[in-house]
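Appendix B. Chain record.
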Amino acid sequence: METVTDTPKDSETPTTFRLGYVPGVTPSKWVGMWKERHRDIPLELVPLESTDAGASVREGFTHASLVRLPIDRTDVHAIELYREVPVVVFPKDHHFAAADELQVTDLGDEVLQHPLDDTLQWEHRPGTAPVERLENTKVALEVVAAGVGVVVVPQSVARLYHRKDLTYTPLDGAPDSPIALVWREGDEDPSIQEFIGIVRGRTANSSRGAGTGNADSGESKAAKKKAAAGAKAGGTTPARGAKSAASRSSKNASAKYARINKSRQAAKSKKRGGK
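Structure tokens predicted for this chain:
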């Protein structure tokens, strides 16, 4: 656990804001913004396993948590923030190492490890199922390094558990890994609303807004812009709906050009008719 705080000016110790996060998720940007805005409220980072991420807020162990969907959403709110691209991890001397990108169909002859903390939602899992499901992704990577099969994980997880004897390649056709902020329904702690504002891109001077009623409807425009910027750096994609503005702009430009061209053609026809 890591606590980010300055010494409070008042003699009374403020309530600590506990933020959980699962492997691969890096909350440092949001933690930095919290520290700038709320120097009097300590923020404690709480590492979680993917399998107990939802329970952490339901049971009050954390105020809010950054998790991988899906989770059990009973009694919790969730805001999807961004999506991570999947990669396939294999030994460096594997024949996959020659490819810049792989397709799901390329895994047909491989044993695809399926650790118990895997959250990727496959419609149809490719490859051959392992003899048993391993305890977690870290153990699965050890088994892959020993030459038994491959494993598909979000890119940030592959980076987190990097090994010199393993490498990875993007896997086209595999499911993305959605990252979300979750908190308990009915929890009125103002610190939670403040942190929601930070991840949604609200400035320090903006109002909190409408509360948690529409929490699951999606992130703000500012958050979408940040997610898109992160996607360009590699490894993430913005949550659904972030591309519509560009599409509308392109359609509007095409329509405007068509109107101008039609006016020009009409003017030319009128001029020829006058002659």
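Further analysis of this model is presented in Appendix C.
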